[in-house]
Design goal:
639 residues, alpha/beta, Rossmann fold, OB fold (Dihydrolipoamide Acetyltransferase, E2P), 6-stranded parallel sheet, 21 helices, 25 strands
Length: 639
């Protein structure tokens, strides 16, 4: 049976300012939901765009000494140019200045007006120009707008009003009888709490004596449409309401993604507008919290508005997308700082996923250069198979993502990644490789790990599509759909090809070096000890010894004794060439903590740059790496 299509939307973003972190999060969340639904074998349509009418646009244009049209063209283009950079897969970008949109707004207004639900009246009220709406006294905080912190102005004028109050009881019933209509639950309760008070009729016009930049009312040329009444209609005008095939296929399957500050227009105005116009009500509203930057809500006045382009330039697109989806619990507020994103990248991406990918491919290339032998693979050995935990991860991922619990969806994948890393440490493929009689077990262990990587590469697709593609290419996979595997096919264990070699692993996520405070930064001068039997304590103190963890290792070409190591020193990552290949394989050394001479002058060995030295004890025949007797922070100085 064919599954229900799904229509995902972001708000159409108001163009009174350039795009910021909050815009990026909402759009990436909708993109992740769209990609997941495609994996779930559903037809999807993904809409975003810009809202371009209203008082604030006129004010912003005046400040830049330009016309409203020139201004909105410029800012709208910033949004349109940003989405491809963030790997957003939207099907359409709508603008409220598009002629097709304007025609649909006029149709909806005429339909509601003809039914008698729009009337003309004089009104005096408290008006916030920042919100472009009237407020009731009970909605203010200490007499001020809750969003802008300014006192509304008292305005008296004649306008057109929409009879929202007529539909209050209907809306309460609809919300209560459709549990998933507004989620998470806390926002459904917020709307129902608001609806306990009598619902005021909505002023849906502005006189042209005050504002001309808007859509003219089809029944009165002296007025333009209230910006929210104009903007919300985009969700059906984009689909070609009322007669297009696109509208018939995807409406009312919409799930709108919005931030919590615009829940009222989407959770009250919009469903009542649809009801009054005789249009089916959308499926649901997904509401997320705010991103706080350096502990405060983003604000121009305190200078903490974060530019997504700058973040992606510094950290990369996939790491940025992963951080946003993993860090925010959907519906709650979250904090964005450079320290937090660096920690996520280094811990989750470089250490957990990147290290696992490198270890498994390195061992597979080393011990199974010609691929796997079907005769050696133990079929579904419960003691060696990773199939059961993989299925558990897939199911947990499916349930979480379907409910927009993106943090839980990614956490389910990372739980499986952690289990695979422990599997390597427990099964010790390097030890199995030393005994030819244990060859079937070795290949079975490595094949299970490769299958596990296949599952991971598929599940990360909605959040990190570029990394997913890179992993699948290395694993020799060819997705049946462009760029992704359907969820049902991911569960089929045993898709890694046998009898074929695999590409060498590349570094998926380089560790991010934390830049120390200039005031605290200390640089040690390279030191060459004198060739004497004894040295003084002052001589020894010139050697900068630090703890570090080997996060990647591979042989140096044309050398029997050298390994190229990537060592994490906490604030930085160093490449070190070490003459330990006869005593250690790359698999056995990755993850070990070692002692490093950090201020040794940079040198070249076999054409490879070495930025330090790891300490080892013993003779040339048998070297033993030295390190702390228990785990210490990487980069910790040895005293």
């Amino acid at each position: 049976m064919k599954k229900k299509p799904r229509f995902f939307t972001t708000p159409i973003y108001y163009v009174n300012a350039k795009p910021h972190l909050g815009h990026a999060y909402t759009t990436i969340a909708a993109d992740v939901a769209t990609r997941f639904m495609q994996m779930d074998s559903r037809d999807t349509y993904f809409l975003t765009g810009t809202d371009e009418h209203g008082d604030k646009i006129v004010q912003a244009a005046e400040k830049q000494d330009t016309s409203p049209k020139e201004y909105v063209d410029k800012i709208s283009k910033l949004f349109q140019d940003l989405w491809p950079v963030l790997n957003i897969s939207n099907d359409q970008f709508i603008r409220t200045t598009n002629p097709d949109h304007i025609r649909v707004v006029e149709q909806v207004l005429s339909k509601i007006h003809d039914s008698g639900d729009i009337y003309f009246s004089s009104y005096e009220g408290l008006y916030c120009f920042g919100c472009e709406r009237f407020y009731q006294e009970r909605e203010l905080v200490d007499g001020k707008c809750p969003d802008h912190g300014t006192e509304p102005e008292v305005i008296r004028e004649s306008n057109y009003f929409f009879r929202m109050s007529k539909y209050q009881d209907w809306l309460i019933d609809h919300i209560q009888t459709h549990p998933d209509f507004i989620r998470p639950e806390q926002y459904k309760k917020e709307i129902l709490s608001f609806l306990k008070e009598p619902l005021e009729d909505l002023c849906i016009s502005r006189p042209k004596t005050r504002l001309t930049w808007g859509i003219t009312l089809p029944f009165d040329e002296d007025y333009v449409t209230y910006v929210w009444f104009d903007a919300l209609v985009n969700y059906i005008s984009a689909l070609g309401y009322p007669d297009s095939d696109l509208f018939k296929k995807f409406w009312p399957t919409a799930r709108h993604f919005v931030a919590k500050d615009i829940i009222k227009p989407h959770g009250i105005y919009w469903p009542i507008m649809l009801k009054a116009a005789g249009i089916d009500i959308y499926d649901g509203l997904n509401v997320h919290g705010f991103w706080n930057v350096r502990g405060s809500k983003m604000s121009k006045s305190i200078g903490n508005v974060t530019d997504p382009l700058e973040v992606t330039r510094e950290f990369g697109v996939d790491p940025f997308r992963y951080f946003l989806m993993r860090e925010m619990v959907f519906g709650k507020d979250a904090n964005f700082t450079e320290d937090v994103i660096v920690t996520r990248i280094n811990s989750d991406l470089a250490n957990d996923l990147g290290n696992l990918f490198s270890r498994v491919l390195t061992m597979t290339n080393r011990y199974c250069k010609q691929g796997f032998s079907k005769e050696n693979l133990t079929p579904r050995d419960p003691d060696l198979s990773l199939e059961s935990p993989a299925r558990t991860a897939i199911e947990a991922f499916r349930q979480a993502m379907a409910n927009c619990e993106f943090h839980n969806g990614t956490a389910a994948v990372w739980t499986f990644i952690g289990l695979m890393n422990k599997y390597i440490d427990t099964r010790e493929p390097w030890a199995l490789a030393k005994d030819e009689t244990r060859r079937p077990m070795l290949e079975t262990v490595l094949y299970n790990l490769m299958e596990g990587l296949r599952v991971v590469s598929c599940l990360i697709y909605p959040v990190m599509p570029e990394t997913s593609s890179k992993m699948q290419e290395t694993l020799g996979l060819e997705p049946p759909d462009p760029g992704f595997y359907p969820l049902d096919q991911i569960m089929d264990w045993g898709q890694i090809k046998t009898g074929l070699g695999f590409s060498k692993p590349s570094i998926l996520f380089p560790r991010i070096e934390i830049k120390p405070d200039k005031k605290e930064k200390k640089t040690a001068k390279p030191f060459k000890p004198a060739l004497k039997d004894e040295i003084t304590i002052e001589d020894f103190s010139k050697i900068d010894l630090r703890t570090g963890t080997v996060i990647q290792a591979e042989p140096v070409e044309k050398s029997e004794k050298l390994l190229k190591l990537l060592v994490d020193l906490g604030a930085e990552t160093r490449q070190i060439i070490a003459g330990i290949a006869k005593n250690y394989t790359p698999e056995t050394i990755v993850g070990k903590q070692v002692l490093v001479v950090a201020n040794l002058k940079e040198a070249k060995l076999m054409g490879q740059v070495s930025q330090g030295m790891v300490l080892a004890a013993g003779s040339k025949k048998e070297l033993i790496l030295t390190g702390p007797d228990k785990k210490a922070p990487d980069g910790c100085p040895v005293k």
